[in-house]
Amino acid sequence: MNRITRINRSNRFAGFSKLLLLASVSFAVVAAFRYLALDFSGLFTTDGLQQIKSYFAEFLQPDFSPTHLQAVASAALETLAMSATGTLLAAVLGCVLSLPAAGYFGWLAKQAARGVLNALRAIPELVWAALMVLAAGLGPNAGTLAIALHTTGVLGRLFAEALENTPAAPANAIRNAGGSRIVAFSYGLLPSLWPQWTAYTLYRWENNIRISSVLGFVGAGGLGQMLYVHLSLFQQAQAATVILAMLILVLLVDGFSQWLRERYLNP
Amino acid sequence: MHNSIQPATPHPWPGHDPALLPRALITLLAVLLLWPGIHFSELDLSVLFDRDSTQAMGSLLEGAWPPAHDSVFLTLLWRAALESLSIAVAGIALALPAALCAALLATRALSRSAMESHGSPSTLARVTRWPVRASLIVLRSVPEIVWALLLVRALGLGPSAGVLAIAITYSGMLGKVYAEIFESVDRRPGNALLAAGAPRLSAFLYGVLPNAAGEILSYTVYRWECALRASVVMGFVGAGGLGQQLELSLRMFAGDEVVAILLVFLLLVLVADQLSRLLRARLL
Amino acid sequence: MSLMLRDAQVCFPGKGKRSREHALTDVSLQVEPGEQLAVIGPSGAGKSTLLRLLATAQQPTSGQVQVLGSDPWAMASGARQKLRAGIGLIQQSPPLPPRQRVLTAVAAGRAGQWSRLKSLLNLLYPLDTANITSTLARLDMATKLFERCDQCSGGELQRVAIARALYQQPQVYLADEPVSAMDPVLAEHTLTLLSREARQSHATLLVSLHNLELALKHFPRVVGLRDGRILFDKATADVRRQELDHLYANEQLSSADCGPGILAQNSKPKTNKPRASIPRC
Fold it and tell me: Considering chain B, what is the average pLDDT of its residues?
């Protein structure tokens, strides 16, 4: 009897806490809408609706003239180069920082490296890009650096985690045969690590192609800058082509990266 | 006894490494791709160290510490942070029902034809699901900040563009994942209801949703965390919140304000992370 | 003196808060250069710990260790690495990275002798294929030269580990159950080979074995180990049946093929690695 009442009570308590959770979440939602005082009335008057409709309708006729296509293609190439070079740079820096972050050079170096990685990762790419535009001027260079900085933070942490989770026995065996640390690392750990590290880098590249196509909004080159300019000039048809190019680029990189991972990096 | 151990035949080409050619080709390819990569991305680290840019960064960093903390700015900051938070919450709140509807249309769970043929759905069903899936791909493949930029042009500056942008992108992301969750949970209760002649909606409500609800809500909370970051970033194109403040302060080279905003942003993300962890632990 | 232990003890932290498990207690042992001997004993007797102790992979809790005439724990780490280059440890389940090729795994034996640059270059292009091939050929493994380690069976991996030690050309071979995953014929052949190679290079050979017959057949000297203590240490001819019975008493309860003891498990590599989740926002 006693146990049954206790179970009932705990059930009731769980139900109550779930109800409370639901209530506070709905309260948060209502409060959010109230706070923003969203005004969608423009959407519902016939006039406003008509305007928005015609604005978006203009996107349905993308500009496919050869000159524009050429410009879009070169911007797409720039975006691709930004994402790939930035990711590559980040992978190299991430490798370098992951060793101290995994505790290879003592406690102090570990905390310092983790701090740096966390700081790099915490600031979004777009903010880095805005800063880099100030530091390195307008253009894709700033975007590449921004991607490299943020991605170094992400990859460095992932690399360090992979490093910590890889069995150390093979490397210890090399140390026991008299090998130096660097040789023990490259013969004992690297064979297990590099497929993981490469897979992480490819994942991140998929992410970065999306990011690098919008970094241009703050002046860091590529498709984003083109889109921003066309939208500022109310050239919706040209902007639509750019968006289409973004979409194709993202899907292509996704497909390519997935194919690479499945084909070559399967364990 | 030792007959089974043959003296080993020497390798046909001693010294020839079969991995050599692929390795050389990959290296060659990498080098060939690296050059255009660096060329088109205009990568040049030396720019960072020349006079102009060090001066620009110097003037930004000069007044960076201590962070701005006068009461007017702090009030502004508090409002902006609350706005970013509200954008994320409202955006996800709008995305959730839209994603549920889209997932219901896209999922292969609760397919009558699949149940009858014990496997894949009929061609007709696949053809009708395809456009839903394709539009979900388009919705989530266009980055949220692009939607925000488009909507700012249509609706004007302010948070409404941000909310709608998040609603659009995240209904695409959530819709895809919801559909996968519906397919991954135990299908027998739903199928049993369908077989008993229940309409698909009630089969979903009573057969699938109870099993999937926890996972769905947990994933939604996780995405809300992402939406919060996105809402801050979207401010850069004028969609309100912390990002808009950050853009203004950067433009004015007000280093102390930039640092203060970044600190608030980090705090916000940290709190959201803890809150989402707590909520997800409760929901699962 | 090639190997010397005096009152060596090895303890591991136990399950309790302050409890310690004695893996080896007051072990004393002397091995002359060029000598060949087998260490026998039931599972969990401390054979692996003894070999790791002699291989300088394990520091003694107390007592003295001397390898090749010097105390490894009294020297600077650089000098210790030089000393280790002369010790070839063959482990029971060889810790080889699954994706490494046999060729590279064997080449790693010379990690202590080659310069860093040579070792790293060897990763890009194998520098000594001919010698590695001939080493593998002696173990009937030449055809596996370019295979990956995860494509090798347990017995083949053990032979890769032996090939690595042979390629290292150490002054002391320490082999921990080197033939446990091989069929009897192959085990016989491999032990014969190991003993012949050691004799030809005037190296010391110390092998721990589960299989009593192999130990008594191949080695002139046998050391019996049980519960971390040396029970007997004498010429094979003088070993009496009674002593062997005593060594393996109660072993039938937990048959001879039962899994490795708790101490061996401590040194096993973890195989399941959690995959980190990749944040994508």
Answer: 82
C278: chain A residues, CB-CB within 8 Å: 158, 200, 203-204
Between strands C172-176 and C221-226, the pairing is unpaired
**Per the CB < 8 Å rule, is C269 touching A176?**
no
**Which domains does chain C possess?**
1-86+172-179+203-266 (3.40.50.300), 92-169 (no CATH)
Q: Please give the pLDDT value at position B115.
A: 62
pLDDT at A25 (0 to 100): 85
Q: Do C276 and A207 touch (CB under 8 A)?
A: no
**Does C98 reach chain A within 8 Å, measured CB to CB?**
yes
Residue with the bigger pLDDT between B92 and C210: it is B92
Model confidence at C257, in pLDDT bands (50, 70, 90)? very low
Q: Give the pLDDT confidence of C119-163 residue by residue, as tens digits.
A: 999 988 888 889 999 999 999 998 888 999 999 999 999 999 999
| Nearest-by-Cβ selection for C111 from A161, A177, A203 | A177
**In terms of DSSP bridges, do strands C221-226 and C229-235 run parallel, antiparallel, or are they unpaired?**
antiparallel
Domain ranges of chain B: 71-283
Q: What count of Cα atoms within 13 Å lies in the side-chain half-sphere of residue B20?
A: 9
Report CB contact under 8 Å: A231, B229: no
Residue C251 has pLDDT above 70, yes or no: no
Cβ of B143 and A39 within 8 Å?
no
pLDDT tens, position by position, B220-266: 888 898 899 899 988 888 888 898 889 888 888 888 888 899 999 99
Nearest to C51 by CA among C156, C183, C206, C166: C206
What are the phi and psi torsion angles at C178 (to 5°)?
A: -70, -15
Ranges of residues in chain A with a pLDDT under 50 are 1
CATH class (in words) of the domain with range B71-283: mainly alpha
* Cα of B39 to nearest chain A Cα, Å: 8
Over residues A172-195, the pLDDT tens digits come to 999 999 999 889 999 999 999 988
Q: How far apart are CA A80 and CA B36, in angstroms?
A: 10
- Subunits that touch chain C (at least 3 Cβ pairs < 8 angstroms)? A, B
B18 to chain C: which residues are within 8 Å by CB? 146
**pTM (whole model) above 0.90:** no
CB contact under 8 A, C276 and A176: no
> A–B: how many Cβ contacts below 8 A?
152
Count interface pairs A-C at CB distance under 8 A: 106
Q: Cα(B229)–Cα(C51) distance, rounded to whole angstroms? A: 55
The tally of CA atoms less than 13 A away on the side-chain side of residue A250 is 21
pLDDT greater than 50 at residue C270:
no
Hey, is A106 helix, strand or coil? Answer: coil
Say what percent of chain C tops pLDDT 90. Answer: 57
Smallest Cβ–Cβ distance between C189 and the set B2, B11, B17 belongs to B2
Asked if C111 lies within 8 A of A200 by C-beta distance, the reply is no
